[in-house]
């Protein structure tokens, strides 16, 4: 069923459902959420509508009097119907199927009720998958730009952590004040862009690098306003990049940001240079140490500028 849904093959989906209507709930590693997402990505709206109908109103095959007939389960609890709708809405948002999403939200009085297990809204879902048109529709149709998930992340935090430059630019362009919002850990979206390199969802180095380079260029906002912001541990994005042992080129990219302060100490009194010194000796770490010192870097614990060794 997942393969048929991914291909947008309406005929094959119909054949499978005729044989066993319960296949809509998936088999093996793919469940109903995966199948709806696959259907949304296929952009075949008829396939999505058919699968959603079978999901929200389950039916089964029975053989009464030797005749095989399709029967509905009976009264469907409202909580079940809502859950299926919630999954469908998120699948449409993540899959970028704007037409289906508009249909599902046509009579919605409160779009913020549709959240996943992490508290993510459909705006989070679309932003994290780079679905620009869906993001534009949601922020222009609903008052949800400041919505946060259970960790306090906005849709911009999510877009940044996934390297989704296009959606990040769309969000910042429409609502510049988003750059000032922090999550529950005190992190700006730049913190999330850096921590995204260690995320379990991290996939593409080039996408993450492009996002950081673009955001640090100052074309979308004044970088100096947030480049030195601290999270709840007192750490800046430069701290996080060094602690996370991110590629040296990216650390150097951060160091070129306008107004960056390379000597901010965290709650433990540690500067970026202190953390860099803890790294195992390597050619790249030696280069970074020299560059940080050249930029005026200090060891926080010693409280004085370290002179570069000849």
UniProtKB/TrEMBL annotation:
Any idea which UniProt keywords this protein has?
ANK repeat, Repeat
Repeat positions for ANK: 118-150
Q: What domain of life is recorded for the organism? A: Eukaryota
The protein's predominant localisation is membrane
Protein's membrane topology: Peripheral membrane protein
Where does it live in the cell? Answer: Cell membrane
One GO term describing the cellular component: plasma membrane
Q: PANTHER family, from UniProt?
A: ANKYRIN REPEAT-CONTAINING PROTEIN ITN1-LIKE ISOFORM X1, PROTEIN PHOSPHATASE 1 REGULATORY SUBUNIT
Protein name in UniProt: Ankyrin
| Species the sequence originates in | Vigna unguiculata (Cowpea)
């Amino acid at each position: 069923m997942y393969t048929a849904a991914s291909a947008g093959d309406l005929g094959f989906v119909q054949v499978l459902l005729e044989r066993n209507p319960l296949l809509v709930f998936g088999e093996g590693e793919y469940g109903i959420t995966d199948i709806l997402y696959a259907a949304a990505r296929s952009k075949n709206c008829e396939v999505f509508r058919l699968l959603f109908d079978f999901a929200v109103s389950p039916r089964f095959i029975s053989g009464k009097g030797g005749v095989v007939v399709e029967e509905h389960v009976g009264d469907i609890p409202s909580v079940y119907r809502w859950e299926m709708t919630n999954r469908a809405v998120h699948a449409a948002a993540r899959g970028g199927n704007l037409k289906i999403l508009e249909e599902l939200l046509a009579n919605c009085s409160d779009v913020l009720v549709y959240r996943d297990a992490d508290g993510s809204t459909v705006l989070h879902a679309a932003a994290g998958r780079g679905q620009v048109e869906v993001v534009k529709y949601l922020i222009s149709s609903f008052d949800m730009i400041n919505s946060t998930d259970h960790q306090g992340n906005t849709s911009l935090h999510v877009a940044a952590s996934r390297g989704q430059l296009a959606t990040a630019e769309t969000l910042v362009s429409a609502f510049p004040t988003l750059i000032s919002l922090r999550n529950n850990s005190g992190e700006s979206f730049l913190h999330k862009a850096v921590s995204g390199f260690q995320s379990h969802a991290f996939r593409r180095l080039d996408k993450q690098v492009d996002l950081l380079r673009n955001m640090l260029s100052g074309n979308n906002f004044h970088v100096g306003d947030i480049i030195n912001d601290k999270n709840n541990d007192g750490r800046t994005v430069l701290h996080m990049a060094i602690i996370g042992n991110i590629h040296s080129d990216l650390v150097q990219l951060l160091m070129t940001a306008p107004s960056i302060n390379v000597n901010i100490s965290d709650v433990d009194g540690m500067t970026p240079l202190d953390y860099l010194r803890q790294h195992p000796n390597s050619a790249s770490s030696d280069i970074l140490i020299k560059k940080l010192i050249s930029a005026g870097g200090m060891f926080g614990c010693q409280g004085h500028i370290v002179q570069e060794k000849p």
